[in-house]
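Exercise 7. Predict the joint structure of the components listed below.
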Amino acid sequence: MSYLGVFLTFARNSLIRDMTFRANFIIELISSMSWMAMNLGFYTLVYRYTQNIAGWDKYEFFVFIATTMFVNSLVQAFFMPNAEELSEMVRTGGLDFALLKPIDTQFLVSLQRVNWSSLGNFLVALMLLAYAVPRIEGYQFSLAAAVLYPLYIVAGVLILYSVMITLAATSIWLGRNQSLYDFWFYITNFSRYPMEIYDGPFGKPLQWAFTFIIPILVVINVPAGIMAKPILADNPYGPWLAVFAVLATIAALAFSRWVFQKALGSYRSASS
Amino acid sequence: MSAIKIRNLQKSYRVYQKKEGLGASLAGLFRREYRTVDAVKGIDLDVEGGEFVAFLGPNGAGKTTTLKLLSGVISPSGGEATVLGHVPWRRENDYRRRFALVMGQKNQLWWDLPAQESFKLHQKIYRIDPADFARTRDELVDLLDIRRLLSQPVRELSLGERMKMELTAALLHSPEVLFLDEPTIGLDVVAQHNIQLFLKHYQKVRGITILLTSHYMKDIAALCKRVVVIARGEIVYDGSLAGIVDKFSGHKVLTVQFGGERMPGNLSRYGEVLEEVAPKARLRVDRGEIAKVLSAVLAEHAVDDVSVEDPPLEEVIAEMFARSSDGPAATDLQPVGM
Amino acid sequence: MVARVQTWWTIFRICVEERLVYRGDFALGTLMRFLPIVTQIFLWTAVFAGAGKGAIVGYSQNDIIAYYLLTTITRAFASMPGLASGFARQVREGEIKKFMIQPIDVIGFLLLARVAHKIIYYAVALGPFALVFWLCRGYFTAGWPEPTVLAAFFASLTMAFLLGFFLELTIGMISFWFLEVSSLLFVYMLFNFFCSGHMFPLEILPQPWQGIVEFLPLKYLAYYPAAIFLGKVPPDELVRGLMIQAGWVLFFVIACRTALNAGYHRYSGYGG
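Solution:
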């Protein structure tokens, strides 16, 4: 419970900080929302020319986008500022202080900043979800879907966190390295599409690798498939994918933890 | 029992060697050359509980590296050390709650927030009992006279005020051992003096063990009875500040005020002439020769006044550092030793 | 004259060296740049499969993918990462004074630095670019365009670089009047992404948006060179289009210079 207390203090301090730069806060809020609006605009345009994309019709796809927004806003709010900060901490030596604290270093480094403005998209996602779900053809409400959806969003956030902290930890090895951040952007870019689009002789291996090796395809596809369709009915892997997603989350967290510890070890023996 | 016990502690690491010029930069794209730097080369040291010890040494001598090793931030390449019975680089939370590290050049408080918010965070992280926390904080805040600054964002504080906040944050959990790395760097004389007074008082009242590195001789003279001199990763001296002069300076300064009309010529036969302004002269004389020279001077000239002194401490230390850093290593180390 | 050439040559060399320090960023970053194309290929394959039509707004499936590939080239020319924000930072931190004291023209200096940056980038990126385009040669169903069209393409690319440079630097110069331009830059970036054709071929936009975009300079940063290459610009309109692009370049060269003079005037008026 003391970790919860520390986290709440992080969140509170971050909010105080955000509120002292209020204009900045509002601008960030608006700009991240307009980014998603453009994304939505793009798919609205595309759906003028087609009825469905890889088995997802318009409103199902909007649920998919809403899910993307939920996951992204949570990752950006809680983890992104910290991962960006990590390489900066290595450069300036701020990591030294983190290593002194009687608290788990990965916890401290992963959560010390909360970017509250990113949660604006969370609200937009809620509205989009409320708009799109009733418009899905033949939609039937299911309690199971309503319960599982938020749980799998959290699982998805944890998988992305694992990828991010793994990449950020490697920056400890390499020193300052901006392209790691780009790498994160490009890798997670794959997760933002329905997994069914990865088809054909090239697509299938890609789909398989991003599901079972780096499990980023389950991040959005599983919760979106649970909410938009009767529990992953159309998914190439079927409802079993939901079981796999739980295992993948645990494995990803364990792996990232291992990499982080290794990186800290190298920091300790490499720096002066 | 010793609070700090160090045996043959060593630390070496690799640095990337950047070459100059366009061609070399291009080659650096594909192949990089590294070089091993021995920052700490086998240090032995015992510090008793309640001692206030200064680390003295030129830039890159290994002072900061030693402090980082003792706080467990980095792991050694060889040797052993215990602080309060803990091996620092095992990084047990029990150990982390018993010491603190303050670095004059880095700040660990949240830049954009009032310091009191960072203090609250410390309370949570170190799991300080709320009543203890309030008491300790009030005590420190009053001692350092910073109560009115508590609700001001840290970025708006002066350097001296910020250092006081850093010290408060570091002492909130009442550490038994305190590592101070250049705590007064960049501060003006008044602020330096304030920090010194505080440290002296606090150490006396609490009886904690403090290791301090500093460039300012005044810090050290004011605070520490014991001085450990580190140069090129090794301990070259361990004892009192005054003892440095005895050990490292083979000279005394002889000041003579001559009587009569004229200054005697050819003073250099007694020793190196440092200053010659009639009717006074300052001479540098070998320690072993001083008795002989003094009696010769007194016998051969009319003398109004005479004094024999040790050379100034700063001079001795500068000389000692210059001697210990013959060769290129000392300047080389500068950028990586921070 | 010789002395001047020597000065510029020295500046150029230092800039090249500076860029080379971040070696890892380069090679990795370039390959990463193509990853979003992979997802675009799959997405559009799924869109065309869903639409069941051979062409959308005059683009076949292959054309669309060729279009995205070509925009990576136009982007490599026209994008100016850090230019405006870097300039704004120099103004904010007073570094700009150094250009007011030294006998160096700041616009010339920045242009040269950018050219150095781009040349190093192309030198490293040529390999990955050639590889990707060779692998994807199948999407260019029309083969190589006519020599005149190719010449027009390169002319348009070069102007895209100049337009990107002067346009973004002009925006950076707004910092003489408003110190904090990062939010403005973000809005520009979003707008640019949507309206320049990075996100999709501009023909997809419905009226009246298409008409509006037609009158903006942004389309010359991504869409226009790619459209020339793919033969989407009728030959009789080619010269007129290039003239308009050149006109925009000229406009921003003048705007940039005017803004700098006015900015210097204001800056010295305030006493720095």
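Discussion. Chain C has one domain: 2-270.
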